[in-house]
Design goal:
Blueprint (H helix, E strand, L loop, with lengths): L1 H56 L3 H11 L4 H27 L7 H16 L5 H6 L3 H22 L8 H24 L9 H35 L2 H17 L2 H16 L4 H28 L1 H8 L7 H8 L2 H12 L8 H26 L1 H22 L9 H22 L6 H26 L3 H5 L1
Helix pairs in contact: 1-3, 1-4, 1-6, 1-8, 1-9, 1-10, 2-3, 2-10, 3-4, 4-7, 6-7, 8-9, 8-15, 8-16, 9-13, 9-16, 10-11, 11-14, 11-17, 12-13, 13-16, 14-16, 15-16, 17-18
């Protein structure tokens, strides 16, 4: 039953992930070519800054809500309504702080301020977005259908109206429209399936969960420090064009890395339900998560490094010349980020919120300090490496904090994936040096070679293992 549940949820999220990869292949090149590096740099800056204020609006609510829905004996309706009430109060305060920042410390140009204020509206909408409720109940198809609908609406806005650099303000407007549709679809479902009503403002109950939420929220903010602070610091230390190159390259890498949220969303509620209750089930879930993470991270990192130049040229165009160097090294972040997610995913299910905070804080502090030292001199390339180093710092801390828990076996998936990825890389390089092919064909061919190599390496590994009778003897 567990395997069927995982497969069903994985298919739901993979469908949404596939759509979220295919649509940006249309919208993202359209956007960066229409806006250019400077205007897109403003968009990247606004997204990074409002991300921090968005965390103030909902500190750890999604992670806490998923965990409580997965394990709590209280009705889902009660959990949802009390969280929504507290979240609305914090969101209003956070947006007011964003307004103050916009008119005081933010760059003074009109477009940047407009982007900040409009982008911030998204976390006002998020107060009634109940994706976490369905994820906690492992009903992934609900969020998948709503998410795909929202992405299609955003695509329509971008392709229909974005034409020149001054149209940058239409991007957050498209996100607002998409967010409203997703929130309404899920709210309607929640009312029908869980009888969720209006938010409940009961401050006397908030003391039971806000400390945990604030701890998780602070951890998320530390996570954003090593994930997004580079863009903000680049905006104040370097040129807008360089910010645009880095933000565009990072966006391409993020599209490749989108499998990580899918894996985390599938396994987080399962780990939360099994942690401390069923050691065998937890061990099995962790191993499956490790296998999936390693099998996806290694080929994407290697393939991305090898194809960085044609990918950057195909997606970003001539205006973003030089971004291929950033993208090539950014793809290594798939390895460090995957390790951080894999080892860190067990901390919150085991009620180790403070240790999770300590792990991501180590990454955040590392990133800020390295950026202060290296960004003024080396610019965007330094931002790439500070992000990678910070992710490894988080992974190392999370590994240390889970030393008392049973580890997943990593040798087998790493060896199998490396063998298949090596065959993939050799094939790609051989064809690139002899035949001129479109990068999409190279990506598809690489995927086929990796899949075949993975199956062959996995079969060979099983044959090399000693038989049970020999082990007993």
């Amino acid at each position: 039953m567990d395997s069927k549940r995982i497969i069903n949820n994985s298919v739901a999220l993979l469908v949404m992930d596939l759509v979220s990869k295919l649509l940006p292949l249309v919208t993202f090149p359209w956007v960066v070519r229409a806006l250019g590096p400077e205007s897109y740099g403003k968009v990247g800056f606004a997204l990074a800054v409002t991300g921090f204020f968005g965390l103030l609006a909902a500190p750890g609510f999604n992670a806490f809500g998923q965990r409580e829905i997965a394990r709590s004996e209280d009705p889902a309706r009660a959990v949802a309504q009390k969280l929504m009430g507290a979240r609305m109060m914090l969101t209003c305060c956070s947006y007011l702080l964003l307004v103050v920042f916009t008119f005081t410390l933010a760059p003074p140009d009109r477009l940047t301020r407009t982007l900040l204020l409009l982008t911030g509206v998204n976390f006002l909408i998020a107060t009634v977005d109940l994706q976490w409720l369905f994820l906690g109940n492992s009903r992934m198809w609900r969020t998948s259908v709503a998410g795909i609908t929202g992405q299609c609406l955003y695509t329509a806005v971008v392709l229909g109206f974005v034409r020149k650099p001054s149209d940058a303000w239409l991007l957050p407007l498209g996100s607002i429209s998409s967010g409203i549709v997703v929130a309404l679809l899920l709210l309607q479902r929640a009312r029908r399936e869980f009888h969720v009503g209006l938010p409940r403002f009961v401050p006397e109950l908030w003391g039971r969960f806000l400390p945990v939420c604030f701890t998780l929220g602070l951890a998320s903010m530390m996570s954003m420090l090593y994930d997004q602070i580079d863009t903000v610091m680049l905006r104040y230390m370097r040129t807008e064009a360089e910010v645009g190159l880095y933000a565009a390259s990072y966006r391409v890498m993020s599209i490749s890395m989108s499998f990580l949220p899918v894996v985390a969303q599938v396994f987080y509620p399962l780990l939360s339900g099994a942690a401390g209750r069923d050691a065998e089930r937890e061990r099995r879930y962790v191993q499956w998560m490790a296998n999936a993470t390693v099998s996806l991270a290694i080929p994407m990192a290697i393939g991305g490094c090898l194809l960085a130049e044609p990918i950057a040229a195909f997606i970003l165009g001539a205006k973003f010349a030089g971004s291929e160097r950033l993208l090539r090294w950014l793809m290594l972040n798939l390895i460090s980020a995957s390790l951080a997610v894999l080892f860190g995913s067990r901390l919150v299910p085991h009620n180790r919120e403070r240790k999770y905070l300590a792990a991501v804080a180590a990454g955040g502090v590392t990133n800020v300090l390295l950026n202060l030292i290296l960004l003024p001199r080396f610019g965007a390339l330094a931002a790439v490496w500070t992000t990678i180093v910070s992710q490894f710092a988080v992974a190392a801390m999370a590994f240390y904090f889970t030393r008392d828990l049973e580890r997943p076996r990593l040798l087998q998936p790493i060896c199998i994936s490396l063998a298949a990825a090596t065959a993939m890389g050799f094939t790609i390089q051989l064809i690139r040096h002899n035949v001129q092919l479109n990068v999409l064909f190279l990506v598809a061919l690489g995927g086929l070679v990796y899949g075949g190599g993975f199956a062959a390496a996995r079969s060979l590994w099983k044959k090399l293992q000693p038989a049970p009778a020999a082990e007993a003897a």
